[in-house]
Amino acid sequence: MTLALEIEGDNLRQVAIDPDGRYGYVASMKNRGFATTRNNIDQGWVVGQRLTRVTLDGSESYATLSLDTRGQAAADAHGAAISPDGRILAVSCGGTHEVMLFRTGPRKLPWRFEGSRDLIPVELLNNDGRYRRVATGGRPTELAFAPDGKTLYAANYLGDSVQVIDAEEATLARTIALGGPSEPSLARRGEALFHDATKSFNQWYSCNTCHSDGHTNGLDFDTLNDGRQDLTSLHLRSRKKVPTLRRVALTRPWTWHGWQTSLEDSVIESFTKSMQGPPRTPAMSRRSSPSSRPSTSRATPTARPTEVSRPPRSGASPCSARPRPPATPATAAPSSPTARSISRASKSPTTPIAAIIPPHSGASTTRTPTSTTAAARPSRTP
Length: 382
Ligand code: HEC
Prior knowledge:
globular; binds heme C
């Protein structure tokens, strides 16, 4: 018999079944759809990592645990395992190079039904032993428990190793090398960068989150390397589908607009704008070819949306993985400047607008920071 169980989320990875055969667990991420500003990223409004539980007979709806903490998020949740006694759940996060351990005991885990929170439940941050993080380095992927219920094995893709974790003590006990090269090749170093979420703002995601396994996760994002982002409630206007990176060196020009004629610049912009990592350095600029780079590609938003005091509720009602526009349309959407109407040298004009936040929220939960658009679009290259 086949039963399709509906959950929210994308990039579904390892599935673990509990010893009684009652629940299945899967590590995944959720696309929230907002522009990749630092403010949005840190609220969990761009992407977030989840552990999702389903009842295998379909008798209950799915439940989630959000894995991200503000300031130190989780990225690329991949492996899932449950101990034979059902007490410990493990999730590996390849992008943040760690394994998270959740323990039930007298106190249950705070699952959220039919939806998910933006961030990890605050009660798990009290150090009561229910939630711990074990640094592994590399890129931990699939997980498996030994029959003793406390020894956890993690396959580490970038470490070329199998790691042994003491899940009771939450410590890395051993790393068993599998005989990889002592000096990583250039391609391997590139892979390490590609999977490294610490290159993004507060380690929320890696290149691999969107360009999954070097391909595409098939979703839309409002990244900034086309020089504009949409902070209005109509934020859908500026979203782009993630292109595949397979054989990308052969598919110039790059980005959907086709204005990016340097692949190297495209990659650097991905680090600085999609990932909101550290700014471009002079060394990076020297390496790329100035003639192929539109000068506006360096324009960064001059103003950030102000902090909002309360995040939107994302889990109150069953929600699809795609954000929905709120019921009330924006009252003062900015008129979008045409591509050529803004001089490259001029500062990005900023138009104050009412940015109504979020998708999944019920009508009353949104707070409206006054935001500005970063409206300077790159001109086409000659
Ligand atoms: C939040 C999702 C996201 C992340 C993270 C991300 N990208 Fe992208 N990437 C996109 C989207 C969306 C586009 C299309 C942008 C456009 O057309 O303006 C894109 C475009 C590209 C392109 C141009 C491809 C083509 O065929 O035109 C390259 C190259 C690229 N990304 C590399 C990277 C690298 C390297 C990283 C990590 C440093 C990265 N991306 C991180 C979403 C993402």
